[in-house]
Design a protein that fits this description.
With 275 residues, the protein is mainly α. Helix content is 77%, strand content 0%. α1 packs parallel to α11.
Length: 275
């Protein structure tokens, strides 16, 4: 029963933080260290990635019509634009896909720890504030996904690649990258949602292949529970973010990241001194 409660908490954390630019992986590592579920480290490492499938299904459900190039409710032009959007998603996914496949295990070994998470939380928190201050009086040059060029897509993809380091935040990295090249907040957030589909499915597949499918009945049940909870909270988080950015910038998330990162650094130093 205790592990069920802990898995529900982790699902809530994933669902909320996956879409807000605050690093879901970072939060899962930190909350997992506090909760310490009675499951193997290998299973929990895989669990933290695979429950993202619940989060990504929230995007598929909320944006199904926009993502579906076969919709009978779309004109031929709209279907063509939908295919073009998917091509853009594929292009922007290339940098992170290549690096993730080649260096996934090395990155996990080096950075899947509280201190690197804290550092990246702070670094990208500062970047959010700098970028938003820089863009305060600048009109975005890109207000539709269809206006994104190949160089822009590769630049956004490069920032998503940096998010392979826990604590960076996939959504945070891609949004910062998009804002830097003149993309509006609304387009940056929406394209980030769509870009997450191949990225998160791919990451989950890699983890499942690495762990194998030799689940116990309990482990499989806990994994499904985490996905369902993550799905429900992701619906709420996406709707909140879409409404929020219509009237506000991302600086509040930058301040949150800096404060959280600072707390983790202090806690890590204190723990090391007391050890």
């Amino acid at each position: 029963m205790l592990d069920i409660i802990k898995v529900i908490i982790l699902g809530i954390v994933e669902g909320i933080t996956e879409w807000l630019p605050v690093s879901s992986t970072g939060h899962l590592i930190l909350v997992g260290d506090l909760l310490k579920p009675g499951l193997s480290d290998e299973f929990m490492e895989m669990f933290n990635v695979v429950i993202q499938l619940g989060a990504i299904m929230a995007v598929v459900v909320l944006y199904f019509h926009k993502l579906n190039p076969f919709s009978p409710r779309k004109t031929q032009k709209q279907k063509m634009l939908t295919w073009q959007m998917w091509i853009k998603v594929v292009i922007a996914s290339i940098p992170a896909g290549v690096v993730g496949i080649l260096f996934n295990d090395i990155l996990d070994e080096l950075f899947y720890k509280p201190l690197p998470v804290a550092v990246m939380l702070i670094v990208y928190g500062v970047l959010f504030i700098i970028v938003e201050n820089r863009n305060a009086d600048v009109r975005p040059s890109v207000k539709k996904i269809s206006e994104l060029t190949v160089p822009m897509l590769l630049a956004i993809g490069g920032f998503q690649m940096l998010a392979l380091i826990p604590g960076t935040s996939r959504s945070g990295a891609t949004i910062v990258g998009a804002l830097l090249i003149g993309v509006s907040r609304e387009v940056a957030a929406e394209f980030t949602f769509f870009l997450a589909i191949p990225a998160m499915f791919g990451a989950s597949l890699i983890k499942l292949m690495g762990f194998g499918l030799d689940f116990t009945g309990t482990e499989f049940g806990l994994l499904m529970l985490g996905c369902v909870v993550s799905f429900g909270l992701s619906i709420v988080a996406i709707r909140f973010l879409v409404g929020y950015i219509k009237k506000h910038d991302f600086k509040v998330f930058g301040y949150y990241r800096i404060v959280l990162g600072g707390i983790i650094v202090i806690a890590t130093v204190v723990q090391a001194l007391l050890a």
